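Morning run. Coffee first, then this:
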Amino acid sequence: MRVAEFDFHLPEDLIAQEPLPDRTASRMLHLVRSDGTVSDRHFRDFPALLHPDDLVVFNNSRVFPARLFGRLAASPLVGRVEVLLTRQLSREPNDWEALARPGRKIGVGAQIIFGDRNQLQAEVVSRGEFGERRIRFQPVADFFSLVETIGHIPLPPYITRADTPADHDRYQTVYARERGSVAAPTAGLHFTPEILARIRQRGIETTEITLHVGLGTFQPVRVENVEEHKIHSESYSISTDAAARINAAVDSSRRVVVVGTTTLRALEHNALASARISAGPGEADVFIYPGFKFQVAGALLTNFHLPQSTLLMLVSALAGTQAVLAAYRYAVGQRYRFYSYGDCMFVD
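And here it is:
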């Protein structure tokens, strides 16, 4: 299967640079898997499209300001360097996987100072296979408080402006709780407390899991054949209550409506071994592309994704490549807004 099969043309002016003032005002393309038909809706219609016995599953991961600007201690003339923290290493809590720019200037052994008052200091201790660095921070009393003070929201590279204070709220779901993501689970950005209340008022069951979005979301596909791509793992956790609710829905043939590709990836990875959900932590490294056998997901709410990306392949695995690409071409023609701050698609 060739990566080029998942390409489509997207005019640059359709890439959303700002969020809409009203989260629920986003447009929503409804794709019906059984016949490939699409219809134009708005996200506020989403609760009405749910079945009474559905189970809706959210990812409650919280974005933190993981983009840090600093300088090299031994080379002050280099100018500003940038570090994007992508994953905290559980066995060494002061160690992080990170992306670094300019990469050629930040080698193993480099000492980096962050903050106007040198609040954080770190050393590059190794390089990884994806070009990332492993950096080790000097211990401080409250690391995350300092990061919240000096860090920046890591907006995706296709948003070509600097982050603003408004992004601290807007690039975050209203139900975010568990800190750890370096990118928002963007399908959830459309929800408001009012929309969640409407879902509850209909008696529709909901639950939450946690998957921390990491390096995989920034990793392009550099091979020609899909099967040759190696996907980066991302940490997730599923509570005992969530596992019981999801298994009960699957056992009774109720539809599991998954909010976002991050949620879907965690659930399907967890269910690989036994076709059931097990409570506890995990590392989602499953690469989902057409031909994958889904065990849990019955419907998906998702934003629109990059051409030739692993997330577009995931959606194509659920709904069919030709149907998804036709829906994307339709969305371009109707001038839907694309990517993180853009509109969404409901696949059922």
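The first strand starts at residue 27 and ends at 31. Good start to the day.
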